[in-house]
Structure to design on (550 residues):
């Protein structure tokens, strides 16, 4: 690392959708783009996952700033934990992202926030790197790509983007993209989320018209679930409700927060009296009510899921309700969404999801043709697909080769894998520490060993072998206790074999040791029983030997 070459690597966001954090190092300077979280597939008491900051902590004297592309949790959610761990001189964000970050930091006491705001024309010059910005379209306002000017040319990081030619808001900055191309793009890092989707992404304006049309045809209450961070969509829902003379009731903590931030920045505008309190719900006819809710991903504790279960304190699903899902399923969430939909139908509601006939949602990520357009506009020498699972990155690499980026100049990297760019070539030969850090509901770090133990208990359960000894002799047979491993009344043969093996192991230990050390023998018994039980059952429960001396 101690040379004049440029280093590019990720601590999160490669081979996964979330946890985005990209690091650029030139000389004695480090620039970081984004600091996000990843939601776990199975919680095991974990709320979310952040990157391992070991390398940044070790090299914090080199860090100049963190720049935020936009305000989604997978790009800003890790900031409080980064600032608790690493000394960061400045965090730069724009517009809505800045508002959401400030809102987030209210949950973390005694944390210094070195925040600053950039705009479209901002330029930050350091010794080896110059930072500028280009506006993009995404499913949240104030989304930017970031340009890093180095001695070898521009490095462009697209952030999350799509090309929407009729956006709700400002256009992508095509002029800047072509300008960078004319000056020479050394490396493009580009969003791969929808690389396997062939059609151009639907425009937000088409969704807006579709929602108005759907609202105008519904006579009962409308309950609409969407991503709380999709502020453009929230405004579309407000406009459709106002056009149909409906009042809006909001359920869900994150939805309420984001609406407040959106209103403060004039992204969400509604006539006075449009938003009402839940206590006013019984006093309005069904055709005058819109309920805006979290829970579009079937999250068990979200407002819509609790309504579907009948456990929400203020809202019950009734016959005649129409539930609209203005969202798409995040990978891994389809099953929980389907469970919620079935419960809503059972309660008597009608459910509308996104389809070619309804158009209740559009993606914020570029599809195959849009990704090729980005590649053609920027004409990079080197290319790294980011923000996506491996199959998405692989498809994106193929698209780059189709647009005449040399195959040997395309790199599918893993988290921690460093791309080193010199005057003559680029190569990946070294790694920095990377991995997952688990955060629990108290915003505290949960030890990785504990998570492994929880997974083991969930998969194979626990078995305890209890020994009673006196003067180096077992005075009773070992007792076996199983929790989540086997049903003991129906597995007497297995239990008896485990008892015999456990007794033999301790007897052998006593015969070979004059002075027993029962603290150390527990590990020996656990390992031997582990092997024995796997041969019997092909399962590996957590084994806890207990030795009682009398």
């Amino acid at each position: 690392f101690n040379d004049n070459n440029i280093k590019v690597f990720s601590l999160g966001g490669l081979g996964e959708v979330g946890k985005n954090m990209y690091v650029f190092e030139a000389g004695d300077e480090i620039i970081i783009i984004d600091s996000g979280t990843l939601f776990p597939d199975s919680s095991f008491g974990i709320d979310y996952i952040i990157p391992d900051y070991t390398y940044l902590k070790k090299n914090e004297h080199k860090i100049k700033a963190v720049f935020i592309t936009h305000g989604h949790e997978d790009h800003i959610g890790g900031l409080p934990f980064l600032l608790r761990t690493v000394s960061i001189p400045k965090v730069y964000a724009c517009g809505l992202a800045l508002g959401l970050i400030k809102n987030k930091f209210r949950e973390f006491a005694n944390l210094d926030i070195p925040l600053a705001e950039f705009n479209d024309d901002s330029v930050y010059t350091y010794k080896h790197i110059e930072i500028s910005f280009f506006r993009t379209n995404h499913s949240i306002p104030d989304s930017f790509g970031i340009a890093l000017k180095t001695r070898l040319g521009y490095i462009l990081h697209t952030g999350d983007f799509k090309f929407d030619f009729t956006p709700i808001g400002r256009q992508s900055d095509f002029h800047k993209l072509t300008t960078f191309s004319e000056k020479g793009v050394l490396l493009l890092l580009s969003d791969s989320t929808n690389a396997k989707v062939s059609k151009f992404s639907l425009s937000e304006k088409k969704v807006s018209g579709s929602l108005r049309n759907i609202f105008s045809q519904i006579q009962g209450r409308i309950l609409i679930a969407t991503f709380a961070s999709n502020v453009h969509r929230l405004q579309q829902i407000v406009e459709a409700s106002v056009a149909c003379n409906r009042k809006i009731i909001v359920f869900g903590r994150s939805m309420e927060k984001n609406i407040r931030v959106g209103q403060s920045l004039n992204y969400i505008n509604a006539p006075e009296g449009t938003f009402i309190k839940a206590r006013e719900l019984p006093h309005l006819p069904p055709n005058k009510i819109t309920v805006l809710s979290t829970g579009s991903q079937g999250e068990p504790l979200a407002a819509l899921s609790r309504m579907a279960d009948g456990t929400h304190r203020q809202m019950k699903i009734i016959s005649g309700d129409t539930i609209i899902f203005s969202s798409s399923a995040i990978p891994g969430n389809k099953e929980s969404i389907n469970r919620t939909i079935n419960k809503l139908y059972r309660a008597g509601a009608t459910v509308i999801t996104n389809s070619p006939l309804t158009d209740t949602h559009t993606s914020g990520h570029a599809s195959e043709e849009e990704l090729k357009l980005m590649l053609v506009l920027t004409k990079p020498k080197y290319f790294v697909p980011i923000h996506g699972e491996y199959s998405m990155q692989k498809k994106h690499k193929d698209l780059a080769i189709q647009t005449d980026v040399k195959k040997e100049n395309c790199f599918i990297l893993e988290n921690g894998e460093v791309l080193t760019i010199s005057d003559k070539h680029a190569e990946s030969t070294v790694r920095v520490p990377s991995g997952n850090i688990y955060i629990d509901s108290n915003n505290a770090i949960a030890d990785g060993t504990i998570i492994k133990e929880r997974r083991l208990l969930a998969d194979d359960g626990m078995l305890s072998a209890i020994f009673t000894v006196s003067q180096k002799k077992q005075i009773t047979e070992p007792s076996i206790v199983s929790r989540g491993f086997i049903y003991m009344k129906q597995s007497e043969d297995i239990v008896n074999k485990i008892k015999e093996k456990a007794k033999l192991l301790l007897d052998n230990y006593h015969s070979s040791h004059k002075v027993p050390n029962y603290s150390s023998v527990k590990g020996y018994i656990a390992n031997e029983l582990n092997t024995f039980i796997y041969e019997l059952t092909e399962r590996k429960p957590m084994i806890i030997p207990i030795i009682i001396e009398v």
About this structure: The mean pLDDT is 90. The first strand starts at residue 6 and ends at 12. The CA atoms of residues 372 and 399 lie 6 Å apart.
